Amino acid sequence: MTRMKKYVTAAAVAAALVGVPTMAHAIAPAGTPASTAGVQATTVAKASSSSSAQVVVPGKRIAAAPKVQLWLTKEGKHWSTPTMAGQFRSVTDGNLDMSQPGVSLQAEPVEGRYFLSGIYHGKGDAATVKVETEQGTVTGTIVRLAGTPGWGGWYATSKLPDSPKSKDGKRDFVRSVTVYDAAGRTIAKMASPSSG
What domains, with CATH codes, occur in the chain? Predict the structure, then answer.
């Protein structure tokens, strides 16, 4: 029996030195039941895949919607639609207060839908954007340049409003635009004055 223990011990030491795996196991954080370790790994994978961010080089055109192109340069956001080519919003001309978080919004009908887009600015790596409209919430796409410029663009599409403009001639079709990081923290938010 003593001879058998020596052989088993020698085999285990040899396997460790050679790097042969003898057993695979998951290590869960302290206090986590072993049965949930796999569930946590799945949850993390799903959370990281929920990002709708596209990191692009300056000038790279993206098909943001049917017949719509959007691209970023170091100066700002550019986009073209069938009725308005070469539109531009600057991040360098002083029209946006880049000293604090914010989101801009441009909305126009394209091919029977609303094309919504804008610029966000704030600290953190934006992962997704949620746009609350009078018809519900839509998830948009973040577009940003490589590196950390502190701003980026976003876009989404929505159904056109069902009702005509309100009595005062104004429409607050978009209630809010919120940009989130991958952990779900708010980077920047724009709310309509009537949304409270």
Answer: 2-47 (no CATH), 53-195 (2.60.40)
pTM: 0.70
Alpha helix segments (H runs only) across the chain: 2-18, 37-49
Q: Around 44, how many Cα atoms within 13 Å sit in the side-chain half-sphere?
A: 6
Contact yes or no for 149/74 (Cβ under 8 A):
yes
Per-10-residue mean pLDDT for the chain, 196 residues long? Answer: 44 38 30 33 32 90 97 97 96 93 95 95 95 94 91 95 60 89 96 58
Give the C-alpha distances (Å, rounded to integers) separating 122 from 101, 180, 181. Answer: 4, 10, 11
Q: Is the dihedral of CA 162, 163, 165, 168 positive or negative?
A: negative
d(CA 156, CA 118): 10
Beta-strand (E) ranges in 19-125?
53-56, 62-65, 68-73, 76-80, 87-90, 102-103, 106-110, 113-121
